[in-house]
Amino acid sequence: MTRRIHRFVAPFALAGLLLTGCAAEFGDAAAPAESGLPELAEELLDAPGQPGPESASLAANALEVLDTIPMAERTEWDGYFQRDEYFGEGWADLDGDRCNTRQELLAEHLEDVAMNRDGCRVDSGVLHDPYTGQTVEFQRGQDTSDDVQIDHVVALYNAWRTGAQDLTQEERLQLANDPLNLQPTVDWANDEKESSDASQWLPPDESYQCTYVARQIAVKATYELWVTSAEDAAMREVLEDCV
Asked: Fewest CB within a 10 Å sphere: which of 110, 147, 189, 191?
């Protein structure tokens, strides 16, 4: 059976990083499992992550897509997780502009950005972190760059154990650098989350939890990953509070 990984407009303006070569277009009657995904992706373009009608609509679309995602337990994995081997070494430059994904995400998400003279690296800026509600001053440097980290919304180790082992290396590289799956956040939140799924960790700022879970669902549906029963239940609990 041919695996379909669909492409849609990414919510953070890094067009071209998402998958190409789709086996079917959105709305194709032969691909009912993907119904609702375009609408969810479109709404994520402007989702404010705040309670209200927008969150209710987002939650309803996310629940519709979640209904199409298979449920299974994580694969057993006793070996060392080879992040670089499985998902590419470091941050890639998939659009070929000589600026890697991390720098593009920082430039897109931070305010008051000062760019390095190389035109790629962000020297400074201000992050309004949706995970924590904190405002963080970013300064590039050996001891300060890690104050702002890039979280994989669906953690790569979680992805590896819920279907990514069946993806090609190119598809995994796309997943690791897909803006839909990437969020700058403060260092402690990223460290606290590690590889947790929605049943194990949610953003401390509850106003962003609906959007966070919706993004996880969109990523899992796009890359044809599955959810565990605990993950499914946790996602539904969050989203049903937003409807």
From this structure: 191
Task: Please name the residue that has the structure tokens 């590889």.
Answer: 195
Total-model pTM: 0.85
**Residue among 137, 142, 151 nearest 189 (CA):** 151
Tell me what pLDDT residue 39 has: 85
Number of other residues whose CB lies within 10 A of the CB of residue 232? 20
**Residue 239 CB-half CA count within 13 A:** 26
> What gap in Å lies between CA 158 and CA 97, rounded to an integer?
30
Residue 138: the pLDDT is 98
Check: CB of residue 141 under 8 Å from CB of residue 112.
no
User: Which pLDDT value is given to residue 50?
Assistant: 66
Contacts 24+ apart (CB under 8 A), 122-130: 127/184, 127/185, 127/186, 129/184, 129/185, 129/186, 129/189, 130/49, 130/183, 130/185, 130/203, 130/205, 130/208, 130/211, 130/212
Residue spans per domain, the chain: 32-240
Report helix, strand or coil for 149.
Answer: strand
Which amino acid does the sequence have at 44? L
Identify the segments of the chain with pLDDT beneath 70. 1-35, 46-50, 78-79
Q: How confident is the model over 218-243, as pLDDT tens digits?
A: 999 999 999 999 999 999 999 999 97
